[in-house]
Each structure stands twice: as structure tokens, then as C-alpha cells.
């Protein structure tokens, strides 16, 4: 049976984003050309929707965004699906993060990420130079930026609709210990945990991931998984890559990702790997 690619889902970090957290103009241009040919192009990212604008070139457009690891879907500014963290989970996890001194960011819908002022000191300590060798430069720079200008430091957690938690630790031992605490909490409260590097973890609503988000976006456009191609690089991309008909790993992807994909790009995210792959696959 022959398949025609009608929809392409692109991860951001480590895929269309280079390690300086920027999307190249060439990647924007190839996306524009694919959309002109009638192929739908989507972002499928662990990042919140509100983060994307500051990372892409002027005029960057896609047909939709699956944000926060499948927690929300956007077409333009319109939300086409959304899940919200249970408030009892939010309160419990913030309490636990404080007890274990784990760097955290809580993402409200339509507003800057938040953390408590009382936790600012230990969070800042997690990103003091020098950068640990095993921490990716893109993740390190993002945390530096979050601390100084991204996080809205609050006296109390306010709001009722949150898309996800993001956690970071400068040592693998610390983050692995924290993941074990979260796994214990999953026995009391249902939620999904995802990772995209050796130094982070994210928490979303139970049974939500990039694959569920891709399915909801495809349904919105009247398409099936047989119409879809996806490109990714890390563990939080695995559900999406296992779902679609054509799965592509970045050259810089983890071995776990490469093992389950159909193809691997010839170039890394720092070498415009997505641009070259899409150009060769669809425009040559």
C-alpha cells in the first residue's frame, strides 16, 4: 500500500531548534515551500505555546501547534484541544519540589511560567556556572533565560488552568531521585511523566503525550496517521514517532529514538538537518 505524506510534525528542541535555541531562516523557507505544495506542517513540542514566538524567524508560520507534549493544540491563536493539570496534583508537586529542592517551572495557559519567590534561591543555585558537562547548552541557556526573564515569581500559586510542569537538576543523581519521587506519587495521583534530556522531567495529564496530541490534530484536519510523517530526537518524541506512518530521527537523536524510526537525517539540528531532509524528500 502506498502512502502520501499530507502532514508533517516537527519537534522543536534538537530538531528544528539548534543548540542556541533558534530556528534557521532556511528551515522557515522550506516549511513555506511545503505548505505552498499543499502539505500541512505542524510543530509538536514539549514547550508551551507561548514560548514559540521568541524562537522562530519573523514570518514563521505553520498549520498548527501541538504544545506542552500534547496538552494543547492550536490552529493560529485558536485552541482546538486542551487538557489541564488537576489542582490537587499542582499543589502536591509544588510542595514536593520545595522539599527536594528541585528546580521547577509551572506553565499556566496564556501567561508566563511561574514559580514561588520563596524557592528562587535554590533554583538559582541549580544554574550557577560553570555548566555541568553533561547538560546540553540549549537547556542551560534556556534555564538562564527563564530565571532572569521568563519566570513570573509569585507569592502564591494562582490560577486554575496549567499545561505542564518542567523540572531540571544540574546533576543526574538529583533528577533521577526526583523522578523516583514522581513515580511514587503516580501511585496516588494519575499523571504522565516525560523526559527530553538526562537532566529534566515534565509532568502532564494522565494518558497525554505527543502521540495523543498528534492524533487530535490529525482528526481536526480530517487526516489519519497514515498521512503523517514526524521528525524528532529525544525520548518525549517516542510516542509520536511510534504512532505515525513515517518516523524520522535526527542525526543527533538518542539511540532509543534511532532504533524505532524509519530514517535518520544526514545532518544534525546544528547543521539544518530538517531543512536538508525535507528538501531532498519533497522538493528535489
From TrEMBL:
<dbReference type="GO" id="GO:0016787">
    <property type="term" value="F:hydrolase activity"/>
</dbReference>
<dbReference type="Pfam" id="PF08282">
    <property type="entry name" value="Hydrolase_3"/>
</dbReference>
<protein>
    <submittedName>
        <fullName>HAD family hydrolase</fullName>
    </submittedName>
</protein>
<feature type="coiled-coil region">
    <location>
        <begin position="168"/>
        <end position="202"/>
    </location>
</feature>
<keyword id="KW-0378">Hydrolase</keyword>
<keyword id="KW-0175">Coiled coil</keyword>
<dbReference type="InterPro" id="IPR036412">
    <property type="entry name" value="HAD-like_sf"/>
</dbReference>
<dbReference type="InterPro" id="IPR000150">
    <property type="entry name" value="Cof"/>
</dbReference>
<dbReference type="InterPro" id="IPR023214">
    <property type="entry name" value="HAD_sf"/>
</dbReference>
<dbReference type="InterPro" id="IPR006379">
    <property type="entry name" value="HAD-SF_hydro_IIB"/>
</dbReference>
Amino acid at each position: 500500500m502506498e502512502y502520501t505524506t499530507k502532514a508533517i510534525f516537527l519537534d522543536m528542541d534538537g530538531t528544528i531548534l539548534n543548540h542556541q535555541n533558534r530556528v534557521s531562516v532556511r528551515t522557515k523557507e522550506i516549511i513555506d515551500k511545503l505548505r505552498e505544495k499543499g502539505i500541512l506542517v505542524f510543530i509538536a513540542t514539549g514547550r508551551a505555546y507561548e514560548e514559540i514566538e521568541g524562537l522562530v524567524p519573523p514570518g514563521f508560520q505553520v498549520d498548527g501547534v501541538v504544545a506542552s507534549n500534547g496538552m494543547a493544540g492550536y490552529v493560529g491563536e485558536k485552541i482546538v484541544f486542551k487538557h489541564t493539570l488537576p489542582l490537587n496534583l499542582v499543589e502536591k508537586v509544588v510542595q514536593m519540589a520545595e522539599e527536594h529542592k528541585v528546580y521547577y517551572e509551572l506553565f499556566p495557559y496564556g501567561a508566563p511560567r511561574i514559580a514561588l519567590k520563596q524557592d528562587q534561591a535554590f533554583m538559582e543555585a541549580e544554574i550557577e556556572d560553570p555548566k555541568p558537562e553533561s547538560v546540553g547548552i540549549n537547556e542551560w541557556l534556556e534555564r538562564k533565560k527563564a530565571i532572569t526573564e521568563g519566570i513570573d515569581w509569585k507569592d502564591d500559586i494562582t490560577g486554575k488552568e496549567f499545561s505542564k510542569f518542567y523540572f531540571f537538576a544540574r546533576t543526574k543523581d538529583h533528577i533521577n531521585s526526583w523522578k523516583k519521587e514522581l513515580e511514587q506519587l503516580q501511585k496516588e495521583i494519575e499523571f504522565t511523566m516525560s523526559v527530553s534530556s538526562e537532566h529534566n522531567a515534565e509532568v502532564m495529564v494522565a494518558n497525554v503525550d505527543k502521540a495523543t496530541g498528534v492524533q487530535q490534530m490529525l482528526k481536526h484536519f480530517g487526516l489519519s496517521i497514515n498521512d503523517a510523517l514526524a521528525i524528532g530526537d529525544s525520548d518525549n518524541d517516542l510516542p509520536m514517532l511510534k504512532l505515525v506512518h513515517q518516523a524520522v530521527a535526527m542525526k543527533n537523536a538518542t539511540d532509543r529514538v534511532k532504533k524505532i524510526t524509519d530514517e535518520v537525517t544526514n545532518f544534525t539540528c546544528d547543521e539544518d538537518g530538517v531543512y536538508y531532509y525535507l528538501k531532498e524528500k519533497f522538493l528535489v
